[in-house]
Recover the amino acids of this structure.
């Protein structure tokens, strides 16, 4: 049976939309298990995360503070209720 190639096409545009990223927190690796807990500060808002990756499984929590999804995704249908439109 021949190997099949998997092609994945990802757009990096949302990453460029959030501007500079600063991370303060921890990152650990043990027995094929990765974990990260910390705060991402971006120009589009802040993201507090606590995640674990083990094989193909990802588990965690993500909390945001004033994350501007309209800016990240370039979709005006996402809007912050603090702003009038």
């Amino acid at each position: 049976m021949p190997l099949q190639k998997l092609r994945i096409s990802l757009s990096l545009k949302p990453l460029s939309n959030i501007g500079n990223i600063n991370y303060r927190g921890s990152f650990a690796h043990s027995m094929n298990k990765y974990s990260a807990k910390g705060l991402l500060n971006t120009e589009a808002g802040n993201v507090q995360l606590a995640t674990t990756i083990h094989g193909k499984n990802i588990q965690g929590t993500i909390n945001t503070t004033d994350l501007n999804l309209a800016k990240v995704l370039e979709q005006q249908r996402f809007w912050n209720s603090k702003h009038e439109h």
